[in-house]
Amino acid sequence: MPPDTAPRYALEARRLGKRFGSHQVLSDVSFGVPPGKTFCILGPSGSGKSTLLRCLNFLERPDEGEVLLEGERVGVRNGTYMKERELSLLRVRMAMVFQHFNLWPHLTVLGNVIESPVHVLGRARDAATADAQALLRKVGLAEKQDVFPHTLSGGQKQRVAIARALAINPKILLFDEPTSSLDPEIVGEVLSVMRQLASEGMTMIVVTHEMGFAREAADTTIFMDAGKIVEVSTPEEFFVQPSTERARQFLQRYVR
Known about the structure:
Shape: globular
Strand content: 25-35%
Strand order of the largest sheet: 8-9-10-3-11-12
Low-confidence stretches: none
Structural class: alpha/beta
Helix content: 25-40%
Distance between the termini: 46 Å
Radius of gyration: 18 Å
């Protein structure tokens, strides 16, 4: 695409809404993430953060609104929802790192990382293996390529999950509270990898309760409450002088 017609946003949400039964989980959620930027989504538990992330790549189907990936509407084609195969290819461009790792227990670490490149993208196994080994070196786990996930610590599992997400060369990485299942002592090893990705210009949307990471690594913070976006600002603005009373209450509780 020529530079003068390149989309402004790598990912854009327009007026997203989501209900579970009579409960409105998301309401009129809109924002855009420019290429190469890190957005951190903050807010109390139950505010709709994880549901929003799942709606972005259609693990949950939004009831209202639309999602655009590099200017192209996703999830819907010619007025109908994409089939699962089409959605799988969409998720290659928008990879997700989950709270509970979601590694395949019957595959080795290397097997987990090459699974999607080989079986979804159709890449040659030798090339996928070489790339996976480079990614495992990047996340500090080269020596673990032949072990199975049950032998790893939580932090190691999450770093494997990040390498697995990177192996499909996504345009965007989505992180759903990637450190919330980890012991405090090993949270740092995962955040270190994420900081490196941010510094390298990876486009990332991160749902997190790690306020220090958001303040240091985010280009933009989104604060949500009760299914709505309350504030969109820089980390400096949000953490020093939030514009709403609800955000001030949140920060008094979560920031020490």
